Amino acid sequence: MIWEVFRQEGAGKYHTHCGNVHAPDREMALMFAQIQHGRRKPTHSIWVTPQQEIGEVNEDGATFGGTTDKGYRWATQYNITAAAEEVADSESEQADAEKERGRR
Amino acid sequence: MDLDTVKERAGPRQFSPDDDMPREYREAATRMIQFHANSEIMGAYLERPFIREAPSLDRKLAYSAKTQDELGHGQLLYRAAESLGIKTREQMLNELANGEGKFLNCFHYPMESWVETPMIAFFVDGAAMRRQATLKRTSWEPYAHAMDKVVFEEGFHIKHGESILKELATGSKKEQEMVQDAFETWWPRIIQFFGPTDDDSTHHDFSAEVGLKQMTNDELRQSFLNQYLPKAEKYGLEIPDTPTIEQDEDGNYRVAEDELDWEEFFQIAKNEYDPGRGQIDSRKRAHDAVEWVRETLDEYETTASGHAPQAAD
């Protein structure tokens, strides 16, 4: 049985997918995950979940973000200086996301 | 974990559902996050009519996207609240429908006209964004994670709101007058957004001690005024005489709070303000109208064939 592994680097951070392990049950999956994925990189917590429990949709089956111009959804599209620091931060996060989407 | 340990360890994103948190913490966090979630939902319902009333296609699309975002924020926050194990999502949605669920003062007032929209979409959202940015450092990790996504999206909302304000404030004389009228109506409510001064705030001390809240109401009100009062002036809005706002020698604003209508505020806080009851009931009707969808989904979930998830509880 294959178990997908999610590692969290520190308290408060996100669990992110880092790989998978073969194991007959959850207890052993957690044990193997510790050895394979929690030994060198900083690890605060590990989750495992049976691979067949994961649902997936990918670019072949969906057009993420739609097919029409949705510029109105982005802070960067409004020609106005951000009103406050946290608005500017949000806008720059959006700019990064837009850039990453554009690069693909 | 006992309360002393919680206070000792309290820090940004310090506690997660893995920790055995005392009931006092879980109740305080539930109250705070449920209030926040309810406000997202009620804010979305308040703005929803303006998808239809938007004066251009761009504005219509943007309003539709914004309303969709806000409802999503509500759902995210109910999940974060649910993870405390005090109330289920369904319970919180029912409380909102039957008038027990509390939410932000500004969302108890209906909006009549398009010129009012920047009062919510710029000033109220701007005020909320000030608070939300500090909540990325809250001690309940699922709440902080919800804030990451909320704050990421809000940048668009506030710039969109400001863009509407700019358009009206630089429009015809009639538009300028109308936006000034709307500003005068909404300004005292916006000042009350941060609640009464700390002395009168019932829940702050505990929430601050356990790291749920990061800034006091006074600090937030101050930082809001510092940032947004000049914005109002920039767009030629005249700051109403009531409440009196003075700047001291350090540049800090002092609001003559006793000039505000706290009787109305506390009536609102108890969900006893008539127009607010109207908002609650109209959302309840919309919610009830799609009861059959929820029922169908629940039925499908319990009878659907296929394997039962191993981790289901």
Automatic annotation (TrEMBL), chain A:
Pfam family, any one: PaaB
Entry superkingdom: Archaea
Skewed-composition ranges (Acidic residues): 86-95
Region (Disordered): 84-104
Record-given protein name: Putative enzyme of phenylacetate metabolism
From TrEMBL, chain B:
Example of a GO MF term: phenylacetyl-CoA 1,2-epoxidase activity
Superkingdom classification of source: Archaea
Chain segments carrying region Disordered: 1-21
Organism: Halococcus thailandensis JCM 13552
Gene Ontology CC, one term: cytosol
Protein name: Phenylacetate-CoA oxygenase subunit PaaA
Residue ranges with Basic and acidic residues bias: 1-11
Ranges annotated as spanning the membrane: none
Alphabetized SUPFAM superfamilies for the sequence: Ferritin-like
Any Gene Ontology biological process: phenylacetate catabolic process
